[in-house]
Amino acid sequence: MPSPSSCPRPVRPRVSRRQCVTNRTDLASMSDNQHPREGAAMRYTEAPERRAHLQRAVAADGYLSSADAAERLGVSEMTVRRDFRTLEEQGVVRRVAGGATAPGGSSFERRDAVGAAEKRAIAERAAREVAGAATVAIDAGTTTQAVAPLLRDRTIVTHSLPVIEAITRIGSPGLVAAGGHYQPDTRSFAGPLAEETLRSIRCDVALLSATALDDEGLWGTNVLDAAIKRVLAAQSTRVILLADAGKLGRVAPVRIAGLHLIDVLITDRRADAGLLARLEAAGIDVKLAG
User: Fold this and answer.
1) Which residues belong to any copy of the HTH deoR-type domain (predicted)?
2) C-alpha dihedral, 31 to 33 to 35 to 39, nearest 10°
């Protein structure tokens, strides 16, 4: 019987350094271009195209969550976070908790330019909804600010700089402006001083905005802004949320409140019928603009 040392050893295939580098590159490519889960809304197989889509979405909405982006593109959240990191290095987005925002202080203006027709229709419907109200609280936001020029001969309560400017231009007889810590991303005032001012006033109706709305409630990206929304709602007899269809069925990092906070939702006709039905079942009066 041959000794163990005389038995032939298995021969391992030789792998060249070039093959190792190629294999690592292939793995990185697979990681960066994962195929979507079943039922995903869209598929991107090239990282540059996927990142271009993410950049456009962040620029349009001002904020995009990693979870929402992953579902839209059919990739993992890890892939989206890597893409956001790359885009941040390029200076085109800014990473925040749960997603990414537009860089710099001009995101408000970019959001204002997106979906102008839908926002105008929602604003017009909101103006009709508050026709009998003497005191109206107007939240900060690109849709809510569009209502301000349509409201005359009543008292407006707001912490939004664009709303303050609009009301002073049209010469409305009543304006209560809450000052405090200025936030460039929402062009509004917030913090303890603004909250104290708003708590001293009772309003007939509040027009609120939100970054996102789903079955669990309202979502935002700013803790101070979320606190102001809760104060406006608490001080108002009726609360109306203005949100275009692009904000529905989504989430953002900061939970503002549950669905109980609002009485009415005004959105546009692109909104998902299934979600609207569930919101109505939760006791919200849904109204379509346009």
Assistant:
1) 47-102
2) 120
Q: What is the pTM of this model?
A: 0.67
Give pLDDT tens digits for 21-61: 334 333 333 334 443 333 344 455 578 889 988 988 887 77
Q: Residues 63, 222: contact at Cβ < 8 Å?
A: no
Give the number of other CB atoms < 10 A from CB of residue 114: 15
The third-level CATH classification (topology) of the domain covering 17-103 is: Arc Repressor Mutant, subunit A (1.10.10)
The predicted-structure confidence for 105-145, as pLDDT tens digits, reads as follows: 445 555 544 557 888 999 999 999 999 999 999 999 989 99
Architecture of domain 110-289: 3-Layer(aba) Sandwich (3.40)
Tell me the domain boundaries of the chain: 17-103, 110-289
Q: Measuring CA to CA, which residue among 67, 81, 66, 75 is closest to residue 43?
A: 75
Q: Where are the beta strands (DSSP E) in the chain?
A: 63-65, 94-96, 99-101, 135-138, 155-158, 174-177, 181-183, 188-190, 203-208, 212-214, 217-220, 236-242, 254-257, 264-268, 285-289
